[in-house]
Amino acid sequence: MPPRRKLNEFERGRAVAWFQDGVPKRExxxxxxxxxxxxVRLIQRFTATGRVQERRRPGRPKKTTPREDRLIERxxxxxxxxxxxxxxxxxxxxxxxxxxxxxxxxxLHGFNLRSRHPAVRPRLTPAHxxxxxxxxxxxxxxxxxxxxxxxxxxxxxxxxxHNDDRLRVWRSQGEPYIDxxxxxxxAFGGGSVMVWGAFSLHHRTPLFxxxxxxxxxxxxxxxxxxxxxxxxxxxGPQAVHQDDNARPHRARVVNDFLQQxxxxxxxxxxxxxxxxxxxxxxxELDRKVRSNHPPPRCCSLSGRRFHRGSSPPxxxx
Length: 317
Fold this sequence. Notes:
By secondary structure, the chain is of the alpha/beta class. It has helices at about 10-20, 25-30, 35-50, 65-80, 85-95, 100-110, 125-140, 145, 215-235, 250-255, 280-290; strands at about 150-160, 190-200, 210, 240, 265. Helix 2 (about 25-30) crosses helix 3 (about 35-50) and helix 5 (about 85-95) crosses helix 6 (about 100-110).
């Protein structure tokens, strides 16, 4: 198809003269390097009005040309973080065209480009990427039986108040600060509690309340020795313990303790995507707690630990 372009007044008159001399429309389009539909519309307009000038279009004419619109799109795609003011300056330097920032945004909207918050992900080095690929290749063919031997573990913190700015309210213009449409925030969530737990396909540990800061010694003496290792022994000699790369989990005292016979540990690459299925359980547990009526007003677990003989709070999940 010939490249699209706009005919000037001389070319439009020439096209009509050729057509009146008996030149076919397709040949006229070929000579002028335009689509045949351009010539068809031109002949129709000349037949109806006797003029070759374009009809006056309603509304305010565009300040930019199609070429400048494509340049705006290209500038935005080259530098995805460029603001409308930066694109405005770059366009002024390149084409000497001065348009408003809102016009820049309107042109980008026409190309289906809109300003969004960027997706957040960890910074990955080549070593991180290689470790990710190696982990996937080692486990891509694992069967359900093999995964059932993995004891997934993690800690989670539960707060009384969410400060993630995802709450939305219905309000009219001029009502940003009325009591029913604002949100009160409390520093650090207004109180929190941290718990540790682990589960596999057929086993689970009690839920342990972590009081204060978790260190490598506390992780070994209060969690691994009384809770995780006995559960692994119940699972059998093929059981594998999984935990992430938090500093207490990778402390030297923890690594030395897990070197004992009968304890297998899954390698977990640094900055890996958090695919631990226990994260889904923490989310469901949080929803269960918040669905209570009345909602919880205290984060204390009375300083007690849920022993193996008792029923843990997550036993109903």
